[in-house]
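User: When convenient, might I ask for sequence and structure tokens for a protein?

AI:
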Amino acid sequence: MTYHAKTLYRKRINVRIGEETLKFEDYPQLYQVSDSLAVRSEARYYWLVRLKIGLIVAAAIVASVTFSLEPDLAELGGIVLAALLVGSMAFTVIMKIKNYDQIWSDSRAVAEYLKSETWSFMMSVGPYDGKLIGENAKIFLERQRLALQKRPELCAHLTTDFEEAIQISDHMREIKNATFETRKEYYIRNRVRDQRLWYMRKAKWNRKQGDVWFVVGWALEVLAIIFAIIVINQRNLVVNPVGIVTAAGGGVISWINSRSYNEPADSYGFVAQELLLSEEKMKQMDTEEKLAEAVLGVEKITAREHMIWLARLY
């Protein structure tokens, strides 16, 4: 192939890469299984939390009704109440044994670390600067091994997900070998802007959820006061609604505490603004050195936010 042909071929490759996005399957296999495990573990953890809260609220409802019933029905109500409380205790034990929250945080930590390493590898920054791609590949694979070595208990949950062992995809190699302008535009669009929009969406979602659950909790408190006044004036009520509404309010508080909506809303909004500034600065950069510095800065921002998330989780 002549020099002109090689140049033309590389230009076509760069144009194609510039129009593409980094798909989930283009990431290392270890990232894919870690991310999938984190998503599943988070869903299962909150599913158990919802069930536990639901059983406690149901137990409070049954308790408020049971002791005003006839003896035969009261005995049945007592059995149902005991079953609900035992079920709540059982879910507590299941949550402890399954340890979904720990698996979720560990697998998410590995996934986010590998995601950052993938972008550093493709942009040739940090430990991947100024080396041949073969040397970079060795460093990349070694750093993956070290990431797992820090969390050996996670390996048992990851091994069942491995179908292939492709840790450096062809697309990753193409981006790494692309021209400066192509890599810069690709990073801005697929890393900085993508992360910024993700944090913006999450900030809005958390803020909205926080407002909704605040209103629900406040409404239940008002309802409890109203019912308390009714109970004072109507002592012959069969059911005591105050206990039911109070239990529901306690369930709402438990759910809000498990999700912590307000803190992520503020934190994610701040990170989104930081990434917006980084995106604008990167558009003006015209050297490899400046680009490398900017990439490292963006990766530090995302890594810092992930550390804050872990601290908030525990």
Summary: The chain has one domain: 3-313.
